[in-house]
């Protein structure tokens, strides 16, 4: 870049890798919240044995839905940030490549032929 600033592309790569790892973890959390936290209504007791059983089951379902929604929201945010970061990294990489070619790359001259 002409103003003397440099971007550490390897640091951007590391951020992207960490975001994808976090996204994978969020996928696992989403699967767990969706499929491994279901409690059948009978687990809270029969209506005649425990009058609040249906209320407790509904509270559980509401909390489960809320948790799934939060995980879905976080997943979307992390996915969006990861894609944006990846696009930024790609733009910097393209610009660095263009700058290198404009200055003659590693060839020693603008023509690209070190025998000129």
Question: Could you please describe the fold and organization of this structure?
Answer:
The chain is an all-alpha fold and 116 residues long. The protein has one domain. 66% of the residues lie in helices and 0% in strands. The protein is built from two helices and no strands. Helix 1 runs antiparallel to helix 2. The C terminus is likely disordered.
What key attributes describe this structure?
mainly alpha; 66% helix; single chain; 0% strand; 116 residues; 2 helices
**Ends distance:** 27 Å
Q: Please tell me what the overall shape is.
A: rod-shaped
- The arrangement of helices and strands along the chain is HH
Largest sheet: none
Q: Look at the structure and give the mean pLDDT.
A: 83
Pick out the low-confidence regions.
111-116
Tally of alpha and pi helices: 2
Q: Radius of gyration over alpha carbons?
A: 27 Å
Question: Topology, please?
Answer:
Blueprint: H1 9-35, H2 53-102
Helix pairs in contact: 1-2
